[in-house]
Structure prediction request, 328 residues.
Amino acid sequence: MSAKKSEKKTKKKGKKQEKKRAKAKKASKKKQSSAPKPVKTGKGATPLEVAQTVVGLLRAGAMKEVEDKWLAPAIESVEGVGASMAWQGKKAVLKKYRDWEADHEIHAMNVEGPWVGATGFAVRYAIDMSQKSTGQRHQMEEIAVYTVKNGKIVREEFHFKTPS
Amino acid sequence: MSAKKSEKKTKKKGKKQEKKRAKAKKASKKKQSSAPKPVKTGKGATPLEVAQTVVGLLRAGAMKEVEDKWLAPAIESVEGVGASMAWQGKKAVLKKYRDWEADHEIHAMNVEGPWVGATGFAVRYAIDMSQKSTGQRHQMEEIAVYTVKNGKIVREEFHFKTPS
Prediction:
């Protein structure tokens, strides 16, 4: 076989292999497109572990321990429909809590849950409370959704019950 | 005043203004740090509007209309604790629905909600169902959290009730 012919053959072989690789890549992409991927939340406690510990603390009224141990420094806190605002960072979030507490008195609170997802957990609160500044008493019903990363709560969003 | 002196004065003035600007920037940053920011979800229907429409359709058994009109093409669907997997894209998500339906029979379903947040909404499902492949009947209790962007559902995560 001449050197030229051999070169041609090698080129052809190379092209064939390239086509084969492209085909395999396409097939794997097609297969991947409907195949699910595992969801990870980093190191530390899992969403299930955080959920069970935090809900236990909430039921015991140990909110301080939740704040100290389970809120990430960069936590984002989001208030739902009607407010639609986001507080960024633990300092701002704790200030929001303190401001709220200064103007509200809780008569009774029921904590239901947790429901546990892949990235976090949900808790349902039913709160009987009065607003100090207005003297009005009312019942609030909400679902808080907490996102967990590296064993801490990095986000919370409060969802309010609305007529449907 | 000599040209040199004037130049010096201008430099000094420039530095002073720079310092002033830096101080103002710092103060505004400090003020912002605890001030909340509005949460936006883009154009189209709001989370409240999507929530009310979708929950109405679910109660009417019109799941097909939810799929056709309210799921974004790039929707991500996440199954909660025990599964912890994410399906990407409407094609993969619809395939997941169809696979589930092929192996399950629903005897009764209760839809509670919505609870509406700033970025989406939560719905509570109580489902009495049987798995066809095993013949086992059981009750499932979950909270689905839907994220809305530009008037469509771009993400759903299912949270399962666990002992706490």
User: Anything to note?
Assistant: The mean pLDDT of chain A is 89. The radius of gyration of chain A is 27 Å. Chain A has two domains: 1-36, 47-160. Helices of chain A lie at 3-34, 47-59, 63-70, 90-103.
